[in-house]
Amino acid sequence: MRKANYIVWFFGFIELILAVLIGIQVYPMLPTQYFWILVAVELVFVVLVLIAVKKTWSSVLMSILAVVLIVLMFVGYRALDKVTDALDKVTDSTSGEHIQMSVVVDTEDPAQTVEDIVGYRVAYLSEEVSEGATATMEKLNAQLDGEVEYVEYEDIVSMVDALLAGEVDALIINEAYLAILEEQEGYEDLFEKIRILTTYEVEGTYHEVEIEIETETEISTEISTETESSGTTTSKPSSGGGSGAIWKPSSGKTGFLGKGDGPSAIEDGTFVVYISGIDTRGNPSVRRNSDVNILAAVNTNTRTVQLINTPRDYYITHPKSKGVKDKLTHAGCYSVECSAGALANLYDVKIDYYVKVNFSGFVEIIDAMGGVDVYSDYEFGGFAKKGYNHFTGGQALRFARDRKSFAAGDNQRGKHQMAVIKGVIDKLASPEWLTNYEEMLTAISGSFVSNFSSQEVYSLIRDQLENPSAWTVHTYAVTGTGARDYTYSIKNLKVYVCVPNYDTVNTAKEKIRAVIGE
User: Fold this and answer.
1) DSSP single-letter state for residue 470
2) For strand 121-125 and strand 170-174, is the pairing parallel, antiparallel, or unpaired?
3) How far is CA 64 from the centre of its chain?
C-alpha cells in the first residue's frame, strides 16, 4: 500500500475518533434529525476516504480535507467540552448551600485574630434557630490553643445586643443574619460597631423536604399576637397548619421541591422555576437574603412564560418558621428551598426547579450576552429612557435594583426585574449571544447554581432547536400594604413588612395555572 494511503487512513482514523466524541456530547442536546444528518455526513466522509486511497492525487486532496476537518472538529469538541463543564458546575446543585459563619467582636475589643479569644464568652444561636453553629464551634475549637465558654441564645437581636452591652465577648453568627439586622432601625451602623475576626464556610443541609401547602384562606386566618412588654410574637396556627413537614397543595396533589420519582417536569412540557437573586457577590451557593423572588411558569408546548414577582418584604410563612410569619427575603438565609417553599405555600403550586444568581453574576452574564434590550415605563436615573433600552450588565443591575425613584417602590422594582428577565429570555432565544459563548459560560459557571440536571438543560436546548419560534413572556406583580410587625427571624423588634393583598395573590395563582394547565 502506498505511503499516501497510510496518511489518508491515519487522518481518517483521527477524524473518526473526534466524530464519535463529538457525537457523544451533542446527542443529548441535538434533535434526532440533526444527529442523523451528522452521522450521514460522517459516512460520506468514510466513503470518500475509501475512494481516495485508490489514486495518489485524491489521497493528497483527502488528506488536506481531513486535516481541515480535524482542526474544525477539535475546535468544536473543545467548545462543547466547555459547555458541558459549565453545565456540570451550575446544575444538580443538591449537595447543600454554604453558610458563612463569622466570629465577631466589638470594635473596641483588643482581639485582632481569632486566636486571641481564648477564655472569652462566645455567644451563638441554637441549632434550632441557626444551622451551622455546631460545625463552626468544632472548627473554632480545633484552631484555638485553649478553651472558650459558649453561651446559647434563641434570637439574633438579644445576642447582638449582648455583645454591644459587653455581656458576652464574641459571637458566632451567620453573616446573613448580620445583614438582616443592619437593615433595621437602630442597627444601621452595626458593621461600624463590630469587627469580624474570621469567617468559616460550613456546608448547609440540602432540604429536599416536603412542606405543607396552606390555602389562601388558611393563611389569612393566622392571627399574630404582639406582646409589647416581652417583645415576642406568637401565632395561632391555622386549621390546616402543621409542622411544615408535608407539602400538600389544596388541589390534593402531593408535590415537593426538586427531583421526584416520576418523569421530569420538563418532559411533561410544563414546569415552574423559582428565580432567586441574592444580595452578595462571589459564591452563589452562599445563603443570603433573597432580594429577587420571581416564579416563572413555563409551557414549552405553547412557548409561554408567566413571570410572577413577589415583593421581598412580603409577610408570609415559610417551612422554617413553623407558622410564624416572616419576611420573604429572610427565608433565603435558611436555604433556597426555604424561599421556594414560602412561594409554593403562597401560590399553592409545586415548584420544580430553582435558579439562584448573585448580583455580580447578573452583571457578568448580561455583559457576556452583549447586553439586553429592556422596556422601561419611565425615564429615570440618567440612563433609562421610556421605551426600549439596550442595557449593559451594570445598567441592567441599576435598573433592576432601583426602588427609591418610584412611588411604587419595591413593586416597581419587581416589574423592572421581570422586564430584565424577559430581555434575557428574548436574547437566549436568538443565536446572537453565541458570538460570546465562552464569556457567557465563564460568567454562568461562577454566578449561579440550580437544581436542573444537565440532561434537563440538554432537553431544553433540543426543544428550542426543534422549535425555534419566539416565546411569549407575560409579567405580573402581586402587591401589599406596608406595616411594621414582629417576624420569625427578628423576634424582639418590629420591622417593616408588606402585608399581602390576597386578591392579587389569587390573580397570580390563576395566571400560573393558565400556563401550566392545572
Assistant:
1) P
2) parallel
3) 48
Rounded to 5°, the CA angle 284-335-259 comes to: 90
Q: What pLDDT, in 10s, does the model give residues 452-494?
A: 888 888 888 888 878 888 899 999 999 999 999 999 999 889 9
Gap between the Cα atoms of 502 and 188, Å rounded: 32
CA distances from 220 to 39, 239, 466 (A): 60, 11, 45
- Torsion, CA 331, CA 332, CA 338, CA 343, rounded to 10: 70
In whole angstroms, give the CA distance from residue 247 to residue 214.
9
Q: Which three cell numbers stand for residue 24?
A: 457523544
Read off the C-alpha cell for 407. 412611588
- CA–CA separation, 231 vs 63, rounded Å? 83
Contact 99, 287 (CB under 8 A): yes
Q: Which three cell numbers stand for residue 18?
A: 473526534
Task: Give Cα 381 distance to the centre of its chain.
Answer: 28
Q: What is the pLDDT of residues 43-73, one digit of tens each?
A: 777 666 666 655 555 666 776 777 777 777 7
CB 154 within 8 A of CB 106: no
At 124, list the grid cell: 451563638
Q: How many residues does the chain have?
A: 518
- Rounded Cα distance between 441 and 87, Å, is 8
The residue with greater pLDDT, 121 or 73, is 121
> What element of type H or E holds 506?
helix 502-516
Do residues 273 and 298 lie in contact, with contact meaning Cβ atoms separated by under 8 Å? yes
The Cα–Cα gap between 120 and 150 comes to: 8
The DSSP bridge partners found for residue 196 are 104
Long-range contact pairs involving 19-25 (C-beta distance under 8 Å, separation at least 24): 19/73, 21/77, 22/73, 22/76, 22/77, 22/80, 25/77, 25/80, 25/81, 25/84
Give the phi and the psi of residue 462 in degrees, each rounded to 5. Answer: -60, -40
User: Which long-range contacts does 228-237 make (Cβ < 8 Å, 24+ apart)?
Assistant: 231/486, 231/491, 231/492, 231/493, 232/486, 232/491, 232/492, 233/324, 233/485, 233/486, 233/487, 233/488, 233/491, 234/324, 235/323, 235/324, 235/325, 237/323
Mean per-residue pLDDT for 363-369?
Answer: 86
| Alpha-carbon span 228 to 226, nearest angstrom | 6
